[in-house]
User: Which sequence fits this backbone?
């Protein structure tokens, strides 16, 4: 049991809703393991209260915080500095208080790439399909494009609202020297495009609890030589991942991204190697014990 005293530093999450977030569990497990005198809490902050909340966090000299929906974009105008990748993405999920200045980062995309890397997936020259161009899809697409610019490779983005996929194609090709295509999410487009894809990433909420019977990509389109990564972490294994595994594909789970994006935030705040094993244990214990799964 950690002792809370006058020197305890506060880290927190702001968003709406935050009650079911795993961030307090993951970060407190890390603080405990490394014996860091800090605590992580979650605060429900409605849209209209964001500025007041950020002013309050500044006044209280809070050490750092995470930002979740609906504030990931609107927080940008309230910060003092924004890291270049977060600026390109146009969304922030991690803020560090550096001598009173609030600096914004985005660790979602980096967390996704780390999840692929730790599962032995190489990106060099790969053809990647991202289904979904919402917050998660955008962050992954930017982090991926930054990598593929160095290594070579291609990205195809599918989205139900095609305008978002087209916008993402435009901003990625303007920012990075990488081949990107943005398409409408349809069975025909998936059928035509997934033929030569090496890595398929679901960044939509299709298949997330409680709609666990749904999948964004038909199992017939999954090939044994594909890597299939689902960013959804509730359930731990989505229908997409179950079907991909049955087809012989390698799978990467959303919980990996969840833990690695938290680990990256921890590294930014604490400047120490995060205790990944403990962070995983805490996340998995909570997800497995959740009655709803
Ligand atoms: P978001 O910004 O609201 O985007 C939702 C995405 O899902 C959009 O692309 C949306 O398409 C698509 N979508 C929703 N319902 C659909 C349907 N019925 N058919 C086709 N497409 C549909 O949400 P987000 O923040 O990106 O989150 C997406 C998922 O990622 C959630 O399940 C979230 O829990 C998960 N996530 C996981 C992590 C992690 O660390 N593992 C991190 C962030 C998010 P439209 O644009 O057409 O609406």
Assistant:
């Amino acid at each position: 049991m950690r002792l809370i005293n006058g020197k305890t530093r506060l880290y927190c999450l702001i968003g709406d809703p935050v009650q079911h977030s795993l961030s307090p569990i993951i970060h407190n497990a890390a603080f405990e393991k490394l014996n860091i005198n800090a605590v992580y809490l979650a605060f429900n902050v409605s849209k209209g209260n964001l500025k007041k909340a950020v002013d309050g966090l500044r006044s209280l000299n809070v050490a750092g915080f995470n930002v979740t929906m609906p504030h990931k974009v609107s927080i940008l105008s309230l910060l003092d500095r924004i890291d270049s990748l977060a600026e390109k993405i146009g969304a922030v999920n991690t803020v560090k208080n550096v001598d009173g200045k609030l600096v914004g980062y985005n660790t979602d995309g980096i967390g996704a790439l780390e999840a692929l890397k730790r599962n032995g997936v190489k990106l060099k020259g790969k053809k990647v399909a991202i289904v979904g161009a919402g917050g998660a899809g955008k962050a992954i697409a930017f982090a991926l494009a930054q990598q593929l610019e160095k290594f070579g490779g291609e990205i195809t983005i599918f989205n139900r609202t095609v305008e978002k996929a087209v916008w993402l194609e435009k901003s990625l090709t303007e920012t990075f020297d990488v081949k990107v295509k943005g398409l409408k999410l349809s069975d025909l487009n998936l059928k035509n495009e997934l033929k030569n894809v090496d890595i398929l990433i679901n960044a939509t909420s299709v298949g997330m609890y409680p709609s666990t019977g749904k999948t964004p990509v038909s199992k017939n389109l999954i090939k044994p030589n594909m890597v299939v990564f689902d960013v959804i972490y509730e359930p731990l294994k989505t229908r997409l991942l179950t079907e991909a595994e049955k087809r012989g594909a390698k799978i990467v789970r959303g919980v990996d991204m969840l833990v690695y994006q938290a680990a990256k935030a921890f590294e930014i705040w604490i400047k120490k190697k995060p205790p990944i094993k403990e962070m995983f244990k805490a996340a998995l214990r909570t997800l497995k014990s959740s009655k709803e799964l």
Notes: The domain at 9-106+257-289 is CATH 3.40.50.10860 (Rossmann fold). The chain is about 40% helix and 20% strand. The radius of gyration is 19 Å. The longest strand covers residues 9-15.
